Amino acid sequence: MPLSAFNGIWSENKEVPLFTAQKSYTLWLEKQKVQYLQQSMSLLADTKLYSKIGAADSISNLKPQQVEVTAQKGDWYKVVSDQVTGWIRPSPGKLVVVEDLNAAADLKDNANTYKYPDAFSPKVSSLGPQTVQVIGRWSNWLLINTNNGNWWIDSRHIELNSTSEEAAPEVAPEAVVPETAAGAA
């Protein structure tokens, strides 16, 4: 094919990769079996609620809260919240079982805090070295209590104090690193 034919061929075929990905996902989801659960989990970010798996339009928008998960199929979860029951398909880190923790931890270097435990979630701030109060854990993420709220931090940037389970400090003022300095770090 001559290079001059590229634009025409591209116009006719540019939708093929997206169609293929969507079809592959549909086929994968159809092969998944429903697993029935009874598990309380934390929904950590706004999430659309659907009447059924794959519905085009959501029936509600759930705010962060504790939900009862009653079933799972693939990456869809059937949840019961305070007002409604339906299916959600949360992004990674948005639906987790948070282990309660009461510990002090030393932040050795500058580190970012996030709305929920996923490096692609919205960044809240950058913290400088300090001691922080850890109130929860999920996977390799720690939930810390700050003066500006509870935020998640990657545990690779923080070291739990060995005796912190008994005597955790009060919430210390944050040493917030300006964005320009955080980007250079």
UniProtKB/TrEMBL annotation:
What is the recorded name of this protein?
A: SH3b domain-containing protein
Residues of the region (Disordered) are 164-185
Q: Locate the compositionally biased regions of type Low complexity.
A: 165-185
